[in-house]
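Lab notebook, bench 4. We co-purified these components, and the gel suggests they stay together. Before we commit to crystallization screens, I want a quick structural picture of the whole thing.
Request: model the full complex, all chains together.
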Amino acid sequence: MLVKLWGVRGSTPVASPAVAGFGGNTPCVQVTGTDGTELILDAGTGIGALGEKIVGRSRRVHILLTHLHFDHIQGLMFFAPMFDSDAEVTVWGPPAAGHALRDRLARYISSPLSPIEIRDLDAKVAFVDTPREPWRIGDVEVRASLVAHRGPTLGYRLAEDGASLAYLPDHEPGLGQRLDAANARWISGHGLAQDASLLIHDAQYADDEYAAHRGFGHSSLSDALVFARRSRPRRLALFHHAPGHDDERLLALGAEAAARWSDLGGEATIEVAREGRAFDLSNEDDPGPLGRGFRGEREAHSG
Amino acid sequence: MAEADAVSEVPLELILARNLVSILSLAAFVVDSDGDVVFFNEAAAEVSGTRFEETGSLTRGEWNRELGPFDEHGRPIPYDELPLAIAAREGRPAYGRFHIRTDTGGLIEIEAGAVPLLGPDGYHGAMVVLWPLERTGQSTGAREG
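Here is the predicted assembly.
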């Protein structure tokens, strides 16, 4: 299972030389199964470049939306396969009372917010509520569960051949409880993240920023690290960077995270998620972060 | 870890309800879809005289044996008549008035309101708020609902 990050920024895209290192696109993660199955986690602005790469090549694409906040769907209308009449796109998303997924997304892909209507998409597009039980897409087992964020929001776990990806880009499990002391079964998202090969997790706020944003649905760096410590993934990628965190700030936060992680006794390798980063989860020796990657980034960006 | 071995997580609706109840000064508890008490807060502990940290989760039977509820004569009230059971059965908020046993062995009259925790995929349990009437001087001795 191959994983590639196409958008790592939270809230709103940022275009500036100051964020060129980590990237300014909002969440989008490509997952390619060993049988070639293409799954895309979230449709933030990062999906635009991904679409250009796979249009005409991948006829069947599955987009798994965690939720419908704008930073996670903004790229849908700029995803080239949506306008390829030979493409079949299945959009999965969280169930919500009262309105079908297609109708909820049509609020965005419709006038006056959009020049086209959702019915005008050329591809064969299906909109499907995620089931409660795990299901398969190709050879990949997919599991979705509601997690702590504002509004119906899913976390995902994708698994294939013993490798697994846990994706919780918008997640505030520490709201109302101490993550270091809580029973693990009572921690939002724990069941998805436990022992994953790679955990991609929300770490939007520095600790000193969190107090002013408590309840917004995102994690402080400390909570992200403690959540990971409890979940024991093999690798951790800190994700959903605040728009105001430029490369310099993210490098500083990465250094702080590495030090804190060491203090926590964490065994996973950690890194600050960066656009373009790819992981081969079927390869145990993927150098990934493991500290090395982070230092490499720091050297690259400080040069 | 094989995927089949993944730890089952408590539904988010219960997690958030517990987090909310845990910080309330109003006596409240949370039950799961089986009717078992999975958490009660400090204010509820003051009413019952038993702290959650001491008991942990309680099955429906254990909770009923310890606390009740009872009618004004101390007779157990059938589960199906409780607001909690109505909330679970009918998926709507429900209200009732009855007695529970305190740690001193006496009975106090309370009002209880149950809110079903209905998520997109169904019923996960309920949040129940308790209001001791005798403490507020509102006891009427009557049982309603």
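The interface with chain A takes residues 1-3, 6-13, 15-16, 18-20, 22-23, 119-121 of chain B (CB under 8 Å). Worth comparing against the SEC data before the next meeting. The helical segments of chain B are 12-23, 42-48, 52-55, 60-67, 83-90, 133-136.
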